[in-house]
Structure formats: structure tokens, C-alpha cells
Amino acid sequence: METIKLSNGVDMPILGYGVYQVSPSECERCVSDAISVGYRLIDTAQAYFNEEGVGNAIKKCGVPRNELFIVTKVWISNAGYERAKASIEESLRKLQTDYIDLLLIHQPFGDYYGTYRAMEEAYRAGKLRAIGVSNFYPDRLIDIAEFSEIPPMVNQVETHVFNQQIEAQKIMQEYGTQIMSWGPFAEGRNNFFGNDTLIAIGAKYGKSLPQVALRYLIQRGVVVIPKSVKKERMIQNIDVFDFTLSDEDMQTILGLDLGHSLFFSHYDPQTVKWLVQYGKNK
């Protein structure tokens, strides 16, 4: 598995397995399958309610813990120093591990500065190997990077061929922050799986549309975490390191960028109100 080096020198796999919307009842099986076919980065979150399944899988998989890279996220309801501090211990317990490889703030709401202080403390104590944020637009990223002792090492944001985060990635690079994609397949929106451009490019390399989409992001230095509950698709999604897209094909795919979210905007007041209320109640 190819890796990228975070700002603190930690090596992070550039492709992993995401468990968003994987039910708690089947999470252990899915993560076990993913690890068995070669995935070493597993991405979960407190709000997914499946950290226990991830923990069971990594405990039973037979792969040494130091060969796995486990990511989880602090949810809005756990924002603030004291709550975040307690939630980190809870995540460690559920994941059945002494340390988490990467902990992110899931959403830029609530007392996320207090959350980040708790994360910095846990990082210094060796409970976290890296820390970062998720869904932080450039303005919020700049703010927390400038006023924290340890700038975020990763920012996980919606990133796919229709919302490529070109300018946001440049700002992340200024602060030594690694871009990480959620939704690399756009969850099928905008007729993603029927896109003629990606299908045609895939045919040139003998690769599927999803493989082309993942390869494009990887060549841009984006960490990707495709999700599937089917083992055969897990195998296909990880099989993207035996070809390289040409410069011409990279430019063609760049032309698919719409420059905006296909899901929601943190700049929209109604979306923010919904997320905040959802975060308080979940």
C-alpha cells in the first residue's frame, strides 16, 4: 500500500476503507473482509455508531496493530475540552486499542477549540499518533491552524471528481495539512456511475469507472476511503496501483469539476442549523 507522510512524520496509507453508513451489525464482518484483502487504513467515527465493530475486527484480524491505521472522529455532542477528553477514552475503549492513529474533529461546530485542546493533550500523551479536522472549509481551517499549537495534520472533506477542492487543497498545503476525501464516489450523485468521460478513460486502461475516479484523486495526493459492503468491490477499489493516468486524462477529469458540494454547504444558515440540532441530539 502506498503511503503519504503527515507533517509530523507519520506514514498514512493513501487508500483506506470507510465505514460510514455500514450498520453496526455488519461492520465487524465488513472491516474483517477489508483487512483480509489488503486494506490497512480503517475510517470510522463516533457518530457512525460502529466503533465497536471496527474494534472487534481489528482485535481478531491477526494483523499486528502497528500495521493498521485507525481513524475516528469526535462528534458535535462531544465538543468542548471535558466532553472531548472523555469521548477519546470512550473511543479507545470501543476500538479496543491503546492509541488511535488519527483523530479528527467531525464538524466545525460547538466548542471545537476546546475539543482540539483535548486532542492536542491526548496527542502529547501518546494516545493519538496524529490529529486533524473534518469538514473545515478554508476559512475555518486557517482560523484553527493559526490559533492552535499543533496545526491540523489532516482535513477530511467532500472530494470527488465533481467537487475537487483544488483551491482548498492549496490552502491546506500552506499549513502542512493533508487532504482526505470523504465521498470519493459522490455517493452516486450527478449520475456518477454513468459518467461517459470516466467510462471512456477507464476503457483505455482496462479499469472500471470507480477505479479511474480513485486513481485520479490518488495522483493528486488525496487520501481516499471508498466504502462497499461487498468483498468483490473492496478488491476492485484497492486495485488502483498498477496504472497511471496520463496528463491528458488528468486534465480531462479536471474538467468535470463543478466547484461546489453535491451534498450541503456549511455556509448555508439552514444547513448549519440542521447540523447543529442534529449534532446536539445524536
Structure in words:
With 282 residues, this protein is an alpha/beta fold. A 7-stranded parallel beta sheet has the order 3-4-5-6-7-8-9. A two-stranded antiparallel sheet has the order 1-2. The protein has one domain: Alpha-Beta Barrel (TIM Barrel). The model has no long low-confidence stretch (mean pLDDT 96). It is built from 11 helices and 9 strands. It has helices at 24-36, 51-60, 81-95, 112-124, 138-146, 166-174, 196-205, 209-219, 231-238, 247-254, 269-281, and strands at residues 3-5, 11-13, 17-18, 41-43, 69-74, 102-105, 131-134, 154-158, 178-182.
Overview in brief:
The chain contains eleven helices and nine strands. By secondary structure, it is α/β, with parallel strands linked by helices.
CATH topology type: TIM Barrel
Sheet/helix structural class:
alpha/beta
Oligomer: single chain
Helix content: 40-55%
Element pattern in H and E: EEEHEHEHEHEHEHEHHHHH
What's the CATH class, please?
Answer: Alpha Beta
Major β-sheet strand ordering: 3-4-5-6-7-8-9
Termini separation comes to 35 Å
Counted up, domains total 1
Q: How many beta strands in the DSSP annotation?
A: 9
Summarize the main sheet.
7 strands, parallel
The shape is globular
Radius of gyration: 18 Å
User: From the 3D coordinates, which CATH architecture would you assign?
Assistant: Alpha-Beta Barrel
CATH superfamily: NADP-dependent oxidoreductase domain
Weakly predicted, low-confidence segments: none
Number of DSSP helices?
Answer: 11
Pfam family, one: Aldo_ket_red
Protein name: Aldo/keto reductase
Keywords: NADP, Oxidoreductase
Domain NADP-dependent oxidoreductase: 21-253
